[in-house]
Amino acid sequence: MLNKYARAFFTRVLTPFAAMLLRWGVSPDAVTLIGTAGSVAGALVFFPRGEFFWGTITITLFIFSDLVDGNMARQAGRSSKWGAFLDSTLDRVADAAIFGGLAMWYAGSGNNDLLCAVALFCLASGQVVSYTKARGESLGFPVNVSGLVERAERLVISLVAAGVSGLHAFGLPYVEWLLPFALWVVAAGSLVTVLQRMLTVRREAFEQEQVGAR
Ligand SMILES: CCCCCCCC/C=C\CCCCCCCC(=O)OC[C@H](COP(=O)(O)O[C@@H]1[C@H](O)[C@H](OP(=O)(O)O)[C@@H](O)[C@H](O)[C@H]1O)OC(=O)CCCCCCC/C=C\CCCCCCCC
Ligand SMILES: Nc1ccn([C@@H]2O[C@H](COP(=O)(O)O)[C@@H](O)[C@H]2O)c(=O)n1
Ligand SMILES: [Mg+2]
Ligand SMILES: [Mg+2]
Predict the structure, then answer these.
(1) Residue 173's pLDDT is what?
(2) Cα(22)–Cα(17) distance, rounded to whole angstroms?
């Protein structure tokens, strides 16, 4: 949903910034790499220590590179299959660091095995959501479904909740439950999305077989 409705807005907002980076001689691949490195560092330095506010601010600053790199490639007429592969592959790395960092907190000082398991479930199911589409498409199916919780939703729900929960450390009361709640929402939504995508590929495979049998 966000991918459909918010992308146009962010494209408009980020286009001048992307153009400026191109004028400075920065390449889309460099933005992809630096954005991922910053997101991973923000997640793995701050989240395992329970510093959710600063972790979220750092990740947010870097994660928008994922919208800038493609914008730069398109403006420069340099969109490439390598760029698409690099972008998608490093998305998985950043996602693993974000949910892995949260799991590390709950496994350590956060001291909550159940929430550690939920964070790990978010990590694994998010990767499977992306895999269903990549594998389906590699087999030649259109995989004509986005599903309930795409990557943008997973990130926005988790990061807004982590950032606001982090304000508890500055004395804001009653916000610390937001992150656990968001993790349950992302876990349930990702499970639904995996099923939606699997059922879509199953339908598309049967339809293709029926056409082939005629
Ligand atoms: C009191 C304050 C507390 C602190 C609050 C901090 C608030 C921080 C809040 C949110 C920040 C979240 C930012 C999230 C930005 C997400 C950007 C992003 O990742 O966009 C990428 C996404 C997909 O792009 P791709 O096509 O490159 O990726 C594909 C995708 O990954 C597929 O995955 P799948 O869906 O299958 O799982 C893969 O299959 C595929 O391989 C891969 O190529 O782009 C979009 O979706 C575009 C829409 C982005 C919408 C972003 C909305 C952001 C909304 C609010 C931001 C608020 C910002 C506030 C800043 C405050 C700073 C202090
Ligand atoms: N280093 C890169 C990154 C991306 N691309 C191209 O952009 C597409 C992704 O666009 P986003 O707005 O989602 O970032 C991707 O499929 C590539 O075509 C690129 O060429 N090089
Ligand atoms: Mg990108
Ligand atoms: Mg991406």
Answers:
(1) 97
(2) 9
Report which ligand 1 atom has the smallest distance to the Cα of 146.
Answer: 35
Whole-structure pTM over 0.95, yes or no? no
Go through 112-121 and write b for each residue having 16 or more CB atoms within 10 A of its CB, e for each that does not.
Answer: eeebbebbbb
> How does pLDDT run across 116-170, given as a tens digit for each residue?
999 999 999 999 999 999 999 999 999 999 999 999 999 999 999 999 999 999 9
Residues lining ligand 4 (ion), CB within 5 A? Answer: 66, 87, 91
Is-catalytic flag, 113? Answer: no
Residue 176 and residue 165 in contact, taking contact as beta carbons nearer than 8 Å: yes
Binding residue per annotation — 87?
Answer: yes
Q: Is the CB of 69 under 6 A from ligand 2?
A: yes
Residues 6+ apart with CB under 8 A from 178: 161, 164, 165
83 lines ligand 2 (CB under 6 A): yes
148 CB contacts (<8 Å, ≥6 apart)?
189, 192, 193, 196
Interface confidence, given as ipTM, is 0.87
Residue type at 213?
A
Asked whether 101 and 43 are in contact (CB, 8 A), the reply is yes
